[in-house]
Amino acid sequence: MKLQLIDSSYTPPNLVFSYWILAFVMFYFLGFKKYNPLFLLIIGLIHNIILLIIYLFIAPVKLIIIFIFVNTIIKVLPIYLLRNTMIQMKDIYFSLCLFLFFLSYISILYFVFGNKNAYHGLYTKNIQVGFLTYWINKLFYK
Asked: Which keywords are on file for this protein (predicted)?
């Protein structure tokens, strides 16, 4: 059974973390270099490689192509640009704090505000994509 791509520009909270990492990378390249985003990028890339392997079996080909393209832009390219930087313990601590903040954010959305989409990606047969994937899909496939 192939998953269905939901045609919506709404990005559910469980997909927002990749864009938080991208914002972290942009701030880093703009000169806010107190913490290096390389650790988060590597963890995110490992997660996305596992997700890609799963998608190879259950997702439509067009989604796989877009997924590879988007992750090359938001994960692989920044990792390449940061390849000569060192990951320090403070970067790992900051990354863990950012992830815990994200988990708190989606938990508050789910439990306090009743946003049932906060953990949407964990139990669905449809694929709700992030805004970049949505617009690339609209541009090339619609």
From this structure: Membrane, Transmembrane, Transmembrane helix
Distance CA 36, CA 28 (A): 7
Phi-psi region at 35: left, alpha or beta (left = phi > 0; alpha = psi -120 to 50): beta
Residues written for the chain: 142
- CB-count exposure of residue 35 (10 Å: 0-12, 13-18, 19+): buried
Q: At residue 83, what are phi and psi to the nearest 5 degrees?
A: -60, -25
Contacts of 19 (CB under 8 A, 6+ apart): 11, 74, 130, 131, 132
**What's residue 133's pLDDT?**
72
> Residue 33 CB: number of other CB atoms within 10 A?
11
Quote the domain boundaries for residue 87. 4-141
Rounded Cα distance between 12 and 102, Å, is 13
Q: List pLDDT tens digits, range 41-73.
A: 999 999 889 989 988 988 888 888 988 999 999
pTM of the model: 0.80
